[in-house]
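Worked example 2:
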Amino acid sequence: MKLSKLISRKGIMFLLIFSILVFVGEKINLPKLIWPLLSYLGIENFPLFQLVGANNQSFTLFQFFGPIAGAFLGPVVGVLSVLIAEIANFFVLGKELTLINFIRLLPMLFAAWYFGTKRDKLSFLTPIIAMILFIVHPVGRQVWYFSLLWTIPISVKLLPKKYSEKVFLKSIGATFTAHAVGGSTWNYVAQMTPELWIGLIPVIVIERLLFALGISLSFVILNTALDKVDSKTKAEYVNVDKRYVLFKGVT
């Protein structure tokens, strides 16, 4: 999608809707949301969706739909829309301007780019650079194998197109790209130890699979809604994937 389309009336409408979703999503704390389920399963101490090494920092519902803007608007405009929404939300919520909060803006930008592209250099270079940054740090060097998780986005892009373009696999690649960007810098801003990284491996595997499911579901729902809008208005101002439209033929 061209930048001029975003500046159009309907493009601004999409950006407004997406910004509202970001605002609502950022206010929904995932650990609190799933706490009853974890308590029922007897795993209250499992640090799912929490940012280990930082006080009172956790993931939000935004993680479940942030990357999909890259698919609907194209990678460049998708990243721009995520950035605009994140910055606006940052000031609306009155967040403190700290290094950790600034770094937390970055992962979703790269995830949106990954989700909106096919095979491109940035999607390959991002996890590679992340692995290098992690391993050159004294703590990361001791658990270098942790960064192998970030080969997953590369592996997805290298699959044949009929597999790599599947929404769930794109979601896995996008969420692990976000994790690579955030995780590679976490040693530099938070108090981490090799033991903490090792203990996080099973947590991250479960966490990222859940994020991928959420991203996939969000994409299908919004893709279907936008298809219905386009069919009524003939606007075609966003990219709709006809393979993932629910209730086809229903008007």
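The mean pLDDT is 82. The chain has one domain: 3-242.
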